[in-house]
Specification:
- This protein folds into two domains: 86 residues; 38 residues, no CATH class.
- The protein is 76% helix and 0% strand.
- The protein is mainly α and 125 residues long.
Amino acid sequence: MLQKTISREIESKLRTRKEEIISCIKREMKKSMAAESRQVMGAGQEECDCAASSHSDYMHFMNLSSRHVIMRQIERALQKIAEGNYGLCEECGVEIGEERLRILPVAVYCRDCQELLEERHEICQ
């Protein structure tokens, strides 16, 4: 199992990243709300302005969706740390390498299993 000092280090890193994402989401939501009120005041916009606005809304939604996925991964990793099973591959049960976890603290598969899953995914497409 991962050394406690490494586990605490990664936990701290995950918590910091989580707070950064929450702050970023709050800022984006404030911007979005301000933009919505500007759009309502600008009713009767030209067609190209509406298209640009729709595209901007779509990109904003995709950005928030991506951050939501990352938040779920972080929360999952923090839960595993709390339960004491962080760092174990969900596929084969082997310890995920320390270096891999330092680089990708939300990793749930060891390198070998991740590569196999990616190969299977490529074959299915």
